[in-house]
Design goal:
Helix 4 crosses helix 6. The chain has two domains: 157 residues, SPOUT methyltransferase, trefoil knot domain (Alpha/beta knot, 3-Layer(aba) Sandwich), CATH 3.40.1280.10; 66 residues, Trp Operon Repressor, Chain A (Orthogonal Bundle). It contains nine helices and nine strands. It is α/β, with parallel strands linked by helices and 244 residues long. It is elongated and about 70 Å long.
């Protein structure tokens, strides 16, 4: 998979390429990550990428020309014969809420361009002309799209074959196949300040452990995310587990 990030702060993405699961995936060639700085496509001596908004108001707006040229440069490097042009995703508080389904869909792409905004945002005409999908982490505002882009890329990389040491890890994550939160996890020692590991996890009974974990996931989702729980179609077994 090829990913190109349009950003004013390319150095921030060293955090992805230098460490952890994402770093190993890039090192193994599962994903190539490039950054493109819109300032490299400016024509004034100040390398300006923003200007005052029409209609007044605080802050500055990122202008069309440098961003359009940066996206064009990224596409030119990523285009391959017989393959579709990469989709452009813009990380923005005005976008659709990012969820596991969207992540899974994007992870199937051969190539992707992620656009990171700054200041008050991006000129709407650039979004209309170039952006295929606008995505948001949630109902809050952060200083720029870079952190949101890193969240997106980390989540996508987890879905790539061979990215995780254990092939079952991604499939057992929260939201992997259903809107269901993960169950509690425990490790050694068995007793920490009087808080002990549930005995079923020490029993060696794999079926009992499976049922316990499923019940805990259901209870956790019901109590913490009733919006997700309402989307679940419970099996007879799951209804019985909740009644126990």
């Amino acid at each position: 998979m090829q990913v190109s990030v349009i950003t004013l702060f390319p150095e921030m993405f060293d955090a992805l390429s230098d460490s952890g699961i994402t770093g190993r995936a890039i090192e193994q060639g599962l994903l190539t990550l490039a950054t493109v700085n819109p300032r490299d496509f400016t024509e004034d001596r100040h390398n300006s990428v923003d200007d005052r908004p029409y209609g007044g108001g605080p802050g500055m707006v990122m202008t069309v020309a440098p961003l359009s040229k940066a996206i064009g440069s990224a596409k030119l490097k990523m285009d391959a014969p017989g393959k579709p042009s990469p989709k452009v995703v813009y990380m923005s508080p005005q976008g659709k809420r990012l969820d596991q389904q969207v992540i899974n869909e994007l992870a199937q792409q051969d190539s992707l361009i992620v656009l990171c905004g700054r200041y008050e945002g991006i000129d709407e005409r650039l979004i209309d002309a170039e952006v295929d999908k606008e995505l948001s982490l949630g109902d809050y505002v952060i200083s720029g799209g870079e952190l949101a882009a890193m969240v997106l890329l980390d989540a996508m990389i987890r879905q790539l074959p061979d990215a995780l040491g254990d092939s079952d890890s991604a499939s057992q994550d929260s939201f992997a196949s259903r809107p269901l939160l993960d169950c509690p996890h425990y490790s050694r020692p068995e007793d920490v300040a009087g808080r002990v590991v549930p005995s079923v996890l020490l029993s060696g009974d794999h079926e009992a452990i499976r049922r316990w974990r499923l019940r805990q996931s259901l209870i956790r989702t019901r109590d913490r995310r009733p919006d997700l729980f309402a989307q679940l179609q419970l099996s007879d077994e799951e209804c019985k587990l909740l009644d126990d």
